Amino acid sequence: MKNRLTMNLRPCLYRKQRPVEDDTEVEIVCLAGGNHRLGITGSDLTCVESVCGQCPIPDVLTEEAKPCLYLLPIRIFGEVEIETLYQCRVLYRLNPKRADKSLSLHFPKACEWWFPHPLEFLPPGTEWHTYRARGLYLGEIEEPAPPPWYWGSPSHPEPGPGWRRLLSWIAKK
Predict the structure, then answer these.
(1) Which residues pair with 85 in a beta bridge?
(2) In terms of Cα–Cα distance, which of 147, 131, 136 is closest to 73?
(3) Which of 69, 75, 94, 119 is most buried as measured by Cβ atoms within 10 A of its Cβ?
């Protein structure tokens, strides 16, 4: 059996290791697949090697590919095949079904919002946006919810007692 130390996989920002609920095991998940479980560390990881070995996402997140900061790779794990799509973090809410199978619209000269991806880490909020974009594309989420850092519009304070008297006095006349 192979463990995480002997796997020969390309590094991927979207492959994460997380403790399972009882903290006795660590699962390997695909962030682009909506936290799809790929395997458990310490067990047979041939599935992880086959799924991650043919994944195009590590090739997209290279210096040569010039990925955009707003690029959201999405993986849809079907019964037989795995589909990889690309969404824009800025625009996916406008038309969630318009996900690209290629990077034709995600390079510097094709997009006015293009900004270089850091390549060493995922931008803040990527997991939330990836989950939302994937859910909207699949129809699992009806309408986009505001991001977790959105607290809504500020509420206007209730007018003080002096203002209420003035307004009622004006309304009488």
Answers:
(1) 74
(2) 131
(3) 75
For residue 36, what is the enclosing H or E element? strand 36-40
Q: If you search the block for the tokens 């994937």, which residue do you land on?
A: 134
73 residue type, one letter: P
Pairing state of beta strands 71-77 and 82-88? antiparallel
Domain ranges of the chain: 15-138
Q: Phi and psi of 15, rounded to 5°?
A: -95, 120
Do 3 and 41 meet the contact criterion of CB atoms below 8 Å apart?
yes
Cβ–Cβ < 8 Å for 105, 152: no
Tokens 């973090």, residue? 89
Residue of higher predicted confidence among 154 and 168: 168
What pTM did the predictor assign? 0.72
* Type and span of the H or E element at 75: strand 71-77
Question: How far is the C-alpha of 72 from the C-alpha of 85, rounded, in Å?
Answer: 8
